[in-house]
Amino acid sequence: MIxxxxxxxxxxxxxxxxxxxxxxxxxxxxxxxxxxxxxxTWSVFDLMSQYMDGTTSSSLYEVKLGKRKFGGETxxxxxxxxxxxxxxxxxxxxxxxxxxxxxxxxxxxxxANHVRGxxxxxxxxxxxxxxxxxxxxxxxxxxxxxxxxxxxMPLISGFMIHNNCENSDFDLFDSMLQKIEERFGSLxxxxxxxxxxxxxxxxxxxxxxxxxxxxxxxxxxxYGVQVYLEPGEAAITNSTTLExxxxxxxxxxxxxxxxxxxxxAHMLDLLIYRQQARMEPCDGPHEYMVxxxxxxxxxxxxxxxxxxxxxxxxxxxxxxxxxxxxxxxNWFNGxxxxxxxxxxxxxxxxxxxxxxxxxFESGLS
Length: 365
Ligand SMILES: *Cc1c(COP(=O)(O)O)cnc(C)c1O
Hints:
Elements: E1 6-10, H1 11-28, E2 31-35, H2 45-48, E3 54-56, H3 60-70, E4 73-78, H4 86-91, E5 95-98, H5 101-106, E6 115-119, H6 146-150, E7 158-160, H7 170-188, E8 193-195, H8 209-223, E9 226-229, H9 233-236, E10 240-251, E11 255-259, H10 263-266, H11 268-272, E12 286-291, E13 300-306, E14 315-319, E15 339-343, E16 349-353, H12 357-362
Parallel strand pairs: 1-15, 2-3, 2-9, 3-4, 4-5, 5-6, 6-7, 7-8, 8-9, 11-12
Antiparallel strand pairs: 1-10, 10-11, 10-14, 12-13, 15-16
Helix pairs in contact: 1-8, 7-8
The chain binds pyridoxal-5'-phosphate (PLP).
Pyridoxal-5'-phosphate binds next to helix 9.
């Protein structure tokens, strides 16, 4: 048995998402690039790269990883490039997308022989959280003034727009795209490619995939552009679990169980977005608050019901632990970092990476 804690990526679950992505590409003509900021566990890129066109990135290191480990098309984007990284970014990408007109102009000479794009900010988004809202007031994410963008059109051949956030509502996507067309339509006609970013939850249960395909296809035809999508969460949703072991149980007005993991270190988004971890549904009679082993008082995975009493040594499994999870794991409290295991399509589980004390020590000096 593999020692906990570990993340377990199940390729057969990943495949369900990949097949929907393949369907979308075929029926819409759009290309799909994995957003590495959401998921960058390259052990499963062999499978994913058969179903997706390539990767998009948020930094030099991500673009380099995409080029080296995924292949295909490699889009470089960053909120801001530093002078000393631009050469390497260009060497590892086939398109570069600048976040601002200022950056585009600063690196105009350096990138003269590269395919270039600019991020637009349509000032509408589907985000429920201000911290994750690219269209928040005073947002630095992209240019919103069409007149200003007009002046740099000779420098670019495409746009990137990312304003969806786990949006499972097709009609909302549709109406926001309508607004984008109203605001930027005359510019869209003048480019060759448009990336509509990530955040569309089209691999989710019950999503009207055919309507999305038709909408993207009509958009591509209207403006004569190659459409790209940049799925992060949609590509890996429900593919991965975090496997943990109960280390102690106690009763302090509620039954508590402490496990060999921590939300701050291993599932940080639960803390940022104040959400509960998820387990396979169970409505047994034994209720526990499952807590992490860090010393943060609020290190709580959530309250769950079990069909048995929990005891030391029991294993628990949190579901949907791929997106924005492994990429954010950290050494807070020196908690042992989860290993990474992959369940292959033939059912065999392979331990692909373990972390030890030396990794902890070498991350600091
Ligand atoms: C975060 C991000 C994505 C991926 O978003 P998901 O919600 O994970 O699909 C894609 N493109 C850009 C520019 C992003 O910032």
